[in-house]
Amino acid sequence: MGKPTGFIEYKRQKTKEQPPLARIEHFGEYATRLSDKDLQTQGARCMDCGTPFCHMGIEIRGTAAGCPINNVIPEWNDLVYRGQWKEALDRLHLTNNFPEFTGRVCPAPCESSCVLGINEPAVAIKSIERSIIDKGFEEGWVMPRVPRTRTGKKVAIIGSGPAGLAAADELNQQGHSVTVYERDDRAGGLLMYGIPNMKLEKEVIERRIRLLQQEGIDFVYNTTVGVDITAEELRAQYDAVLLATGAQKQRELRIEGSEGNGVVLAMDYLTSVTKSYVRSNFEDGQAMNVEGKNVIIIGGGDTGADCVATAIRQNCKSVVQFGKHPKLPNARTEETMWPKDPSIFTFDYAYEEVDAKLGRDPREYCIQTEKIVSDTEGNIKELHTIYMEKILGEDGFHYFKELPGTEKVWPVDYVFVAIGFEGVERSLPERFGVELINNRVAATIKDYQTTVPGVFTAGDARRGQSLVVWAIREGREAAAAIHTFLAKEVVSL
Ligand code: FAD
């Protein structure tokens, strides 16, 4: 640690953001870097705390505490403080294949675990991480690393989300020949067509893909495994297969009238907008457009928030977001709103934007959707709701009770359904004959191997909808397991 008094002398500063009214005029990234000098002082705030929980990467009741990929944060904080940026980049790349993704969209469990956070704002770890890698690309320090030798072993990776990409990178560096199959027209999974461009510029993903290609990884696009190429063909052609297909089966809204025109799954909306943006800057007219429309988003998580931010950029007339289904005991109320700490999470941006443009917070809590009413042509026009009260039952659990007299009719043209994901799409795992557990591909955390030898799984497909950083961790660990599996095969020949 270079400056023992840094945490006393300097205040926290994080990545700069364009003001809300300016940034909703476009779909480009709105966060920009601090100056090198400011970043050095931010690095100096890391106080050599002795037990740096920031890089522990443990899971407590499903919530990450510390960095899931064990980034050695205090070390690169110190290197940044000393102005040794290239060394900081090398240290960062040791544990993180894609810091340019996590530096932009990770909810930064490292910052929630920062010891300085006990009585001061946490070290701005995420901003420092992003700056190290962005500077690395600008300076030309991130170069293709082509493996010197090849093992002769072939691995097929199905799915090019962060889990598949991390595994591909690791396995390629071990000298195996890797082919990534992707059903979409570009790589990145939810990084590409789920997370909106303003949070993660798509060129940032494409830049990394070009690098991986130069390093020898093959990408096969527009190819749905199980349809365009069979599971049997893949198994015959490759020594190991990794299912990194995500958990993208969305939960549907099932209330009276939900079949009306204008009720759309959130991911279909987000995907149509991003596809149209990256292919033609919207000139193809393929993006679903809510300009001048009344929009309601059902679902209080980050997918819902991304719909809010997209709708406000399209100049919608109104936008409202309902919190979790109030009949669930863990439904969000004003006291348990999400995100808990807006300085860290990545989707409070949407609420600031609506507030700036329309002068209100779009979020509504403890509200029950009753029915949707359409006009004679089948286009939706009203959403009927009733507010709920949260009460504590005799059994100690919370329940929700309808509040008589709070019925409300909302004028609506579009309802975006963002009420979560049900797990993996079952057809592919079934074709490989692997077992599922709770709508996820069954595999142990130890070796990521499914119930079929030689077939592995990682990322959301194994753990359910999660975070980019967990997908990277799983991809890295699954790659290590596949490497061991392939090495055993060589030994037993
Ligand atoms: P995915 O990213 O889902 O990738 C799976 C890939 O497999 C896809 O490209 C898919 O097309 C492909 N595939 C599936 N089946 C086949 C097949 N049969 N053949 C060929 N290809 C196939 N996390 C964060 O950390 N921060 C955020 O801000 C954030 N925002 C999010 C916003 C939204 C709207 C959503 C939906 C998720 C968000 N997440 C965020 C979660 C994060 O994106 C996921 O946890 C992560 O992408 C999972 O990675 P993965 O590689 O397991 O799967």
Automatic annotation (TrEMBL):
UniProt keywords, alphabetically: Amino-acid biosynthesis, Glutamate biosynthesis, Oxidoreductase
Domain of life according to the entry: Bacteria
Pathway listed: Amino-acid biosynthesis
SUPFAM superfamilies in the record: alpha-helical ferredoxin, Nucleotide-binding domain
Ranges for domain FAD/NAD(P)-binding: 153-319, 403-475
GO-annotated biological processes: glutamate biosynthetic process
Protein name, UniProt field: Glutamate synthase
Taxonomic classification: Bacteria, Bacillati, Bacillota, Bacilli, Bacillales
